[in-house]
Amino acid sequence: MQNLPRHAGTLLMRIRENAPRVHCLTNAVVKELTADGLTAIGAIPSMTENADEMPDFMDVSKALLVNLGTLDPARTEAIKTAVSLMAAAQKPFIIDPVKVEISESRLALAHTLCAQRPAAIRGNAAEIAALAPSAPSAALVTTGADDTIRWGGKSITVHNGDPLMGYVTGTGCLSGGVIAAFLTVEEDRMIAAACAMLVMGVAAEIARPQARGPGTFRAALLDALYSLDTETLIQHGRISQNG
Ligand SMILES: Nc1ncnc2c1ncn2[C@@H]1O[C@H](COP(=O)(O)OP(=O)(O)O)[C@@H](O)[C@H]1O
Ligand SMILES: Cc1ncsc1CCOP(=O)(O)O
Ligand SMILES: [Mg+2]
């Protein structure tokens, strides 16, 4: 795409206008940051993990985030129900396969979920490597110092971000939620994921000068997500593309 930062700004405005509901089945450590970050960009998060409530909540959700950290039997049940409902309704869901390279049961669940065709998978290099072969149609988002989105033989790398993100638990997990929100306003899953990562990375750079360390950075990141605009994305965005 010619002008990805400008497009990211347009999509961010669309999220603020539409206020899409994004359901998050995520790990216990990052629930608050994920809900706060989604709210800051203008989406409406819901977080219940009661499998019985999934039909009602999936009905009103435009996208679903599934994060496999701190997995327990109740959330596993909710995840299976929610993913089946979203797949049947042809609504997007994203998987964050936290530590699947360590846990055999998580890997098995992730493989089952991949068969239902997630729009995207977000993880670090080891997590993505473990799942890439079983999700051929998903946009693969590998985060780290740079974030690379791969899909259909093409790739986009977002160079924005700040090392302080690595000192706040859940910035990677939040990026999965932000991708889910962008999937509600952009049909091209690769562009949606790249714009979401650009928003996260530029927000981190705007937050950095306001922060004295991880604690104040966390608050400043939420402030930056809330106030980010197209001009700032154009000014700060650094991306490269292949294919
Ligand atoms: N050194 C860095 N420089 C810039 N951004 C970083 C750096 N390390 C991590 N990030 C960003 O922090 C977020 C968390 O990424 P990462 O640490 O890869 O996730 P996880 O917590 O799942 O392992 C990502 O959005 C990534 O872009
Ligand atoms: C996101 C995150 N970062 C450190 S622990 C944690 C939650 C993941 O939980 P688990 O250790 O069960 O994978
Ligand atoms: Mg980065």
Automatic annotation (TrEMBL):
One of its GO terms (molecular function) is ATP binding. Pathway: Cofactor biosynthesis; thiamine diphosphate biosynthesis; 4-methyl-5-(2-phosphoethyl)-thiazole from 5-(2-hydroxyethyl)-4-methylthiazole: step 1/1. It is an enzyme of class 2 (transferase). Its EC number is 2.7.1.50. Coiled coil: none annotated. Pfam families: HK. Its cofactor is Mg(2+). It comes from the Bacteria. It catalyses: 5-(2-hydroxyethyl)-4-methylthiazole + ATP = 4-methyl-5-(2-phosphooxyethyl)-thiazole + ADP + H(+). Keywords: ATP-binding, Kinase, Magnesium, Metal-binding, Nucleotide-binding, Thiamine biosynthesis, Transferase. InterPro entries: Hyethyz_kinase, Ribokinase-like. CDD domains: THZ_kinase (cd01170). Substrate binds at M47, G170. One of its GO terms (biological process) is thiamine diphosphate biosynthetic process. ATP binds at R122, T143. Belongs to the Thz kinase family. Catalyzes the phosphorylation of the hydroxyl group of 4-methyl-5-beta-hydroxyethylthiazole (THZ). This is Hydroxyethylthiazole kinase. The gene is thiM.
